[in-house]
Write a structure and sequence with these properties.
The protein is 72% helix and 0% strand. The protein has 101 residues and is mainly α. The N and C termini lie far apart (62 Å). The relative contact order is 0.12.
């Protein structure tokens, strides 16, 4: 009974986690790999009961949350299959952008 009472009072609200995931944005000076890690952690918590669609959710949340609009556009139009592919593309584009500066 105590465990059930504890879970009712202190279980994280899945709807709040889903909203936080949708609203996630890369913070200034946050490394993109750290941002992807944060997105994955949040997605796993929000979709714990449904593990199969997580990769697509992580991919979409990662791309939409990138702080640079040009980077976001370039990664999105490259149609990466996984979040790791999107991360690799993003890092490649960032390197290219820095060389061009």
């Amino acid at each position: 009974m105590l465990v059930d009472a504890f879970r009712q009072n202190y279980t994280t609200n899945v709807d709040i986690l889903k909203a936080r995931l949708k609203a996630s944005r890369q913070q200034p000076n946050q490394d993109i790999s750290a941002f992807l890690c944060d997105i994955r952690t949040l997605a796993r918590r929000a979709y714990r009961a449904f593990p199969h669609p997580i990769e697509q959710i992580v991919l979409t949340s990662f791309i939409e949350g990138l702080s640079d609009s040009t980077l976001r556009w370039e990664v999105r139009t490259s149609n990466p299959a996984t979040a790791d592919d999107a991360l690799a593309l993003a890092m490649e584009f960032i390197s290219f952008f820095e060389i061009e500066k």
